[in-house]
C-alpha cells in the first residue's frame, strides 16, 4: 500500500469544494492506486456543513480515502500537506470584476501563506483558485518565505479548457485533437487565449484559423468573458468546471502532462519580458516533478500588446496589496 497523499482543500464547504472533494476521493486527481487523506478548511460557521460533507464522503465508501479531517484552523489543515488547493474566498456576483474581490480576499491568502510556511511539507504543491487568483497566489507566496517559489501556482486552466473546447467547436473537431494552445496572463478579462501555435491532429492549425477577425472579435473576448456569461446565466459563478480545471491542473503538475502543453500561472522568472514575481499564465509541460516553461515562442506586435495589458493589470493589483508583501 502506498503512503497516502495529504491534500488540503480550503473553502471546502463552498460550491467548488462540493464539486471537487468527491472526485479527489475517487482517484481522479492522483490515480486509482494512490490513497489520499483530505484535510478540509473552512470558516467556523461552516464546520457543520463540512461535517455533513465528511459523512457523505464516508457514505461513498471510496477505497482510496484513508481519512478526512475537518477544521477551521489553517495550521491544522496544512500540516504535512503534500498538496494544497486554496479555494476558500468570496466569489464575485453580477456586476463585479474579479479584481473587485482583492480587498475582500487578500487577507485570507496572507494568513494561509504563513500557515503553509509553518506546517506544510517543504515540497508542497499549492494551487490558488480563489479570486483574484494570480495576485492571491503572489500574496501567499510572499507570506511563505521558507517555501520555494516553485511550490506556488494559480489557476488559468479553466480558461485553457474553455479555449480548447471553443476552438474544437469552431473547427468541428474533437477536443483532444487540439494541442499547443496557450492562455497567457491574468485570470481576468485581460487574459490572452492564443492559438497561433495550435496543432489539430498534430498538424499546424494555421490554415484553418486564418480568420483574424474571428480571433480578435469572437474567440479571445468570448474566452475572457466566459466566467461572466456563466454568472449571468446561472446566477452563481462556475463551480463544477472550476473544480474540474483544478483537478486537471494539479493532476498534470503531479503526474505529468504527457508532453502536452498546458497553461499554468507561475511566478514570472522574467521570460517573455514579464516582470519577475507576478503570477502570469504561461505554457508549460509538466514532467511529473515540475512544470517546465515553453520558451522562445515568437511574440508578435499583437501578442505583445495583449501580454502588456495583463502585465499592467497584474502590476496594478500587486501595487494595491503591496502592504501585504513586506
Ligand atoms: N480561478 C478560477 O478559475 C476560478 C473559477 C471559479 C471560481 N473561482 C473562485 O473560487 C472562489 C470560491 O468559489 P465558490 O464558488 O466555491 O464560492 P463559495 O462562496 O460557494 O465558497 C467559498 C467557501 O470559502 C469559504 N471561506 C471564505 N473565507 C475563508 C477562509 N478564510 N478560510 C477558509 N474558507 C473560507 C466560505 O465559507 C465558503 O464555504 C471564489 O473566489 C471564486 O471567485 C475561481
Ligand atoms: O468569473 C468568475 O468570477 C468566476 C471564475 O473566475 C470563472 O472564470 O468562472
Automatic annotation (TrEMBL):
Residues in the active site? Answer: 187 (proton acceptor)
What domain of life is recorded for the organism?
A: Bacteria
Q: Name one Pfam family in it.
A: Ldh_1_N
Can you provide one Gene Ontology molecular function annotated for this UniProt record? L-malate dehydrogenase (NAD+) activity
Positions of substrate binding: 92, 98, 131, 162
The alphabetized list of GO BP terms reads:
malate metabolic process; tricarboxylic acid cycle
Q: Which residue numbers delimit the Lactate/malate dehydrogenase C-terminal domain?
A: 157-319
**InterPro entries (UniProt xref):** L-lactate/malate_DH, Lactate/malate_DH_C, Lactate/malate_DH_N, Lactate_DH/Glyco_Ohase_4_C, Malate_DH_type2, NAD(P)-bd_dom_sf
Q: Does the keyword Lyase apply?
A: no
Going by the UniProt record, its keywords in alphabetical order are: NAD, Oxidoreductase, Tricarboxylic acid cycle
- Swiss-Prot/TrEMBL catalytic activity: (S)-malate + NAD(+) = oxaloacetate + NADH + H(+)
Residues the record lists as binding NAD(+):
11-17, 42, 105, 112, 129-131
Q: Where is the Lactate/malate dehydrogenase N-terminal domain?
A: 6-144
Looking up Gene3D superfamilies in the UniProt record yields: Lactate dehydrogenase/glycoside hydrolase, family 4, C-terminal (3.90.110.10), NAD(P)-binding Rossmann-like Domain (3.40.50.720)
- Might you give the EC number(s) for this enzyme? 1.1.1.37
Q: Which PANTHER family match?
A: MALATE DEHYDROGENASE
* Reported function: Catalyzes the reversible oxidation of malate to oxaloacetate.
Family assignment from sequence similarity: Belongs to the LDH/MDH superfamily. MDH type 2 family.
Which named protein is this?
Malate dehydrogenase
Organism of origin: Pseudoduganella lurida
Q: Which gene encodes it?
A: mdh
Amino acid at each position: 500500500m502506498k503512503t497516502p497523499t495529504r491534500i488540503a482543500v480550503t473553502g471546502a464547504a463552498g460550491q467548488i469544494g462540493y464539486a471537487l472533494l468527491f472526485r479527489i476521493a475517487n482517484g481522479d486527481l492522483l490515480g486509482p492506486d494512490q490513497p489520499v487523506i483530505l484535510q478540509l478548511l473552512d470558516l467556523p460557521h461552516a464546520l457543520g456543513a463540512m461535517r455533513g460533507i465528511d459523512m457523505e464522503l464516508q457514505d461513498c465508501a471510496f477505497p482510496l480515502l484513508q481519512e478526512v479531517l475537518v477544521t477551521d484552523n489553517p495550521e491544522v489543515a496544512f500540516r504535512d500537506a503534500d498538496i494544497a488547493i486554496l479555494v476558500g474566498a468570496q466569489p464575485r456576483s453580477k456586476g463585479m470584476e474579479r479584481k473587485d474581490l482583492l480587498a475582500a480576499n487578500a487577507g485570507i491568502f496572507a494568513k494561509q501563506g504563513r500557515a503553509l510556511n509553518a506546517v506544510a511539507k517543504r515540497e508542497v504543491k499549492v494551487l490558488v483558485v480563489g479570486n483574484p487568483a494570480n495576485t492571491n497566489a503572489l500574496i501567499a507566496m510572499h507570506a511563505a518565505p521558507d517555501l520555494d517559489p516553485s511550490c506556488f501556482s494559480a489557476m488559468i486552466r479553466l480558461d485553457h479548457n474553455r479555449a480548447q473546447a471553443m476552438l474544437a467547436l469552431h473547427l468541428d473537431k474533437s477536443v483532444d485533437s487540439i494541442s499547443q494552445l496557450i492562455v497567457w496572463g491574468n485570470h481576468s478579462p485581460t487574459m490572452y487565449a492564443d492559438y497561433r501555435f495550435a496543432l489539430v491532429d498534430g498538424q499546424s492549425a494555421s490554415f484553418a484559423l486564418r480568420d483574424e477577425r474571428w480571433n480578435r472579435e469572437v474567440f479571445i473576448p468570448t474566452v475572457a468573458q466566459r466566467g461572466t456569461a456563466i454568472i449571468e446565466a446561472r446566477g452563481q459563478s462556475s463551480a463544477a468546471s472550476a473544480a474540474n480545471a483544478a483537478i486537471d491542473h494539479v493532476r498534470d503538475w503531479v503526474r505529468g502532462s504527457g508532453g502536452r502543453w498546458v497553461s499554468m500561472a507561475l511566478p514570472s522568472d522574467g521570460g517573455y519580458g514579464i516582470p519577475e514575481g507576478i503570477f502570469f499564465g504561461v505554457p508549460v509541460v509538466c514532467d511529473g516533478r515540475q512544470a517546465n516553461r515553453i520558451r522562445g515562442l515568437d511574440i508578435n506586435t499583437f501578442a505583445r500588446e495583449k501580454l502588456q495589458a495583463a502585465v499592467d493589470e497584474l502590476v496594478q493589483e500587486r501595487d494595491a496589496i503591496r502592504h501585504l508583501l513586506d
